[in-house]
Amino acid sequence: MKAAFLTGIGAIEVRQAPEPRLANPTDVLLKVNSVGVCGSDIHYYRAGRIGDQVVGFPFILGHELSATVIEAGPGAPGLSPGDRVAVDPLICCGKCDQCLAGREHTCRNQAFMGVPGQLEGALAERVVMPAACCHGIPATMTADQAALVEPFSIGLYARALAGEVPGKTAAVLGAGPIGLSVLMALRHARAGEVYVTDVRDWRAQLAASLGASWIGNPNSQDVVADIRRTEPGGVDVAFECAGEQATVDQCAQLLKPGGLLVLVGIPELDRLSFEMNCMRRCELRIQNVRRQNKCIGRAIELIASGQVQADRMITHRYSLDQARQAFDTVANYADSVVKAMIHVG
């Protein structure tokens, strides 16, 4: 079968790969349909690492996927050949203290697709995953929509970690796919005014069309001062979705005393800092977000029903043979890209 391998920094080659085989009775052999290019994939593409997770080349990236069941093991009831699924890319052990506490997303023995040292990614014609990771989708849902379930579920989880939001004011800094997912989750939950910023005008404009109350570009204006003119007391919650020092600082400056800073973005740097005078005097709270937790089913429901139009984020589509072009486009923010989707099947 064919697979797209990361062979070096900024280098992807489509090569032949061994056929995957069912190793456990609960495994499912999947034909991969669509794979979204995620910002974390781009970190590996540009830097070869995220923190202490360092790529050993060659390596297959990709974890936002939809697929069709080819074969289901005898211990995978409810799944049959031909079933279409959205795939949760996290395999948890089910036995550690985190799993037993309902925190499978912080499993101490987890394997996540496309993470070095854990599991090869989804940019291959066929993959094997446990049946528990495969969630059936309705006939009305497209393969591209199903591939967006994973990133949108992160937006749902980030919103859930912020607590009840109806009527509350929010800022979303960074309008890439994850920031837009947070925005859509906030809008569905009936948040109050939602202020969105991005350094790329086309992403901010898409945020406006998806329900942002206000959009701004920190490269051309003082977004903190402009938002503060409308919200002089500050906003209730700020979602940092860019993984940048500047947006972390802006979030802190936008929050009202006692406000919540939700860190969603993944920084390429090992360390970020906080302006402690602001953080301490305003008694700001900080909440980190680690992927998603038990939000896949709800994400499928909202996207499939049309209550959330996540596929409006898709701006580019490529074949598996064009994987390097897809990664270059996203890495360089070329051609007004927001979400690039690679059609494998």
The portion of residues assigned to helices is: 25-40%
What is the overall pLDDT average?
97
Strand content: 25-35%
CATH topology of the largest domain: Quinone Oxidoreductase, Chain A, domain 1
CATH architecture of the largest domain: Alpha-Beta Complex
Largest β sheet strand count, sense and barrel closure: 7 strands, mixed
Classification by helices and strands: alpha/beta
Summed up, the helix count is 11
Spatial separation of the terminal alpha carbons = 11 Å
* CATH class type of the largest domain: Alpha Beta
The count of strands amounts to 20
Rg result: 20 Å
Task: Tell me what the structure shows.
It is a single chain. The protein is α/β, with parallel strands linked by helices and 345 residues long. The chain has 2 domains: 2-147 and 309-343, Quinone Oxidoreductase, Chain A, domain 1 (Alpha-Beta Complex), CATH 3.90.180; 152-288, Rossmann fold, CATH 3.40.50.720. The protein has helices at residues 39-47, 97-100, 143-147, 149-161, 177-188, 201-209, 223-230, 245-254, 276-281, 296-304, 323-331; strands at residues 2-8, 11-16, 27-36, 49-50, 53-54, 59-60, 64-72, 84-87, 90-91, 111-112, 126-130, 134-136, 170-173, 194-197, 214-216, 235-240, 255-263, 285-288, 314-319, 339-343. The strands form 5 sheets. Strands 3, 7, 8, 11, 12, 19 and 20 form a 7-stranded mixed β-sheet that branches. The longest helix is centred in the middle third of the chain and has 13 residues, at 149-161. The model has no long low-confidence stretch (mean pLDDT 97).
